[in-house]
């Protein structure tokens, strides 16, 4: 890893590009094949797209899945894709609505809910992506899935054009298009997502993001340190005597005493392991007996 770039890049994805296309540009900019992103954005959606470069791709499963968005819901319209990109299906009049009524309806969607993904989505149906079948004209019966809406705030309401401005913090796997559709249905007039911008994902924010054009610079943008992305997780610092054993994949004799005493560690909990001088050594998970089982060992022996 010392002679190859590795870390995280936060792109401010523009509209019109797929997440995969952004990854391809990062590969070219850094001259590496090993690049992956932390959560697909639809082509029309802009904002935070975390991209792991080099060995940092192995850390993606350990990053927090919470994401934050700002978006516009257009009431009085339904489409095949639950946004403005799909075929328009029906227009309906928007009833007279005030802020209090809107907030009462929004309250139904706060917390743990069941959500049916959009017809045009990446979920698998009988081994095939739903969007492929939808594009062939099939109407799918998609099963609802549990999602968590941690925060759902009404930022603005324009009754003249039937548009709501929302901020949403949600778990991974939540479709904001489906939320727009369901809000419209609950209000009795239909709704679609008119625009969406992701403002935070996997612990990264817009303040850290660089525009796509920055990839044309030489050298390309500096990568963020992996430890910064793992900040919320508990840490265990190796002693000099533990370092060789860790690199050989041996369990650590005990989890972080302070974290264990505070009840922060439980079986299966991910723990960041750092070297005696504070560099990232890898990732471990807590076993039933409180030990740390190596799951990702960086610079392993051999």
Element pattern in H and E: EHEEEEEHEEEHEEHEEEHEHHEEE
- Total separate domains: 3
Mean pLDDT over all positions: 89
Within CATH, the superfamily of the largest domain carries the name Pseudouridine synthase
Unreliable spans are none
Number of strands: 18
Major beta sheet summary? 10 strands, mixed
Q: Tell me the span between the first and last alpha carbons.
A: 15 Å
Q: What's the CATH topology name of the largest domain?
A: Pseudouridine synthase
Give the helix/strand class: alpha+beta
CATH top level of the largest domain is Alpha Beta
User: What's the CATH architecture of the largest domain?
Assistant: 2-Layer Sandwich
Rg value? 22 Å
Percentage of β-strand residues? 25-35%
The 3D shape can be described as elongated
Number of helices: 7
Helix amount:
10-25%
Layout of strands and helices, then pairs:
Blueprint: E1 7-13, H1 19-30, E2 35-37, E3 46-53, E4 67-75, E5 77-79, E6 88-91, H2 99-107, E7 111-115, E8 124-125, E9 128-129, H3 130-135, E10 145-158, E11 163-170, H4 176-186, E12 191-201, E13 204-205, E14 210-211, H5 226-229, E15 235-237, H6 240-247, H7 257-261, E16 270-274, E17 280-286, E18 292-297
Any overview of this molecule?
The two termini are 15 Å apart. The model has no long low-confidence stretch (mean pLDDT 89). The chain has seven helices and 18 strands. The protein has three domains: 7-63 and 203-228, Pseudouridine synthase; 67-201, Pseudouridine synthase, CATH 3.30.2350; 233-297, PUA domain (Archaeosine Trna-guanine Transglycosylase, Chain: A, domain 4). 18% of the residues lie in helices and 33% in strands. It is elongated. The chain has helices at 19-30, 99-107, 130-135, 176-186, 226-229, 240-247, 257-261, and strands at 7-13, 35-37, 46-53, 67-75, 77-79, 88-91, 111-115, 124-125, 128-129, 145-158, 163-170, 191-201, 204-205, 210-211, 235-237, 270-274, 280-286, 292-297. It is an alpha+beta fold and 302 residues long. Strands 1, 2, 3, 4, 7, 10, 11, 12, 13 and 14 form a ten-stranded mixed beta sheet that branches. It has a four-stranded mixed beta sheet with strand order 15-16-17-18, with no helix packed on it. A two-stranded antiparallel ribbon has the order 5-6.
């Amino acid at each position: 890893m010392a002679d190859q770039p590795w870390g995280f890049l936060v792109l401010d994805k523009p509209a019109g590009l797929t997440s995969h296309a952004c990854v391809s540009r990062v590969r070219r900019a850094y001259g590496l094949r090993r690049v992956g992103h932390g959560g697909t954005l639809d082509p029309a959606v802009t904002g935070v797209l975390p991209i792991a470069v080099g060995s940092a791709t192995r850390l993606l499963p350990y990053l927090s899945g919470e994401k934050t968005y700002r978006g516009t819901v257009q009431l009085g319209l339904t489409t095949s894709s639950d946004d403005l990109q799909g075929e328009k299906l029906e227009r309906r009049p928007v009833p007279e609505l005030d802020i209090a009524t809107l907030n009462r309806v929004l309250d139904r969607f706060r917390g743990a809910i069941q959500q049916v993904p959009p017809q045009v989505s990446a979920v698998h149906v009988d081994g095939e992506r739903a969007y492929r079948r939808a594009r062939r004209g099939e109407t799918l019966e998609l099963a609802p899935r549990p999602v968590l809406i941690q925060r759902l705030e009404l930022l603005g309401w324009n009754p003249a054009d039937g548009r709501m401005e929302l901020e949403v913090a949600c778990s991974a796997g939540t479709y904001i298009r489906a939320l727009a559709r369901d809000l419209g249905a609950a209000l009795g007039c239909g709704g679609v997502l008119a625009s969406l911008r992701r403002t935070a994902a996997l612990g990264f924010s817009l303040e850290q993001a660089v525009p796509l054009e920055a990839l044309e610079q030489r050298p390309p943008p500096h990568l963020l340190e992996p430890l910064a992305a793992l900040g919320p997780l508990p840490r265990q610092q190796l002693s000099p005597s533990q370092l060789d054993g860790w690199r050989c994949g041996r369990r650590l004799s005990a989890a972080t005493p302070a974290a264990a005493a505070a009840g922060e560690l439980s079986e299966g909990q991910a723990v960041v392991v750092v070297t005696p001088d504070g560099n990232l050594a890898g990732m471990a998970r807590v076993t039933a007996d409180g030990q740390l089982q190596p799951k990702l060992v960086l610079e392993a022996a051999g």
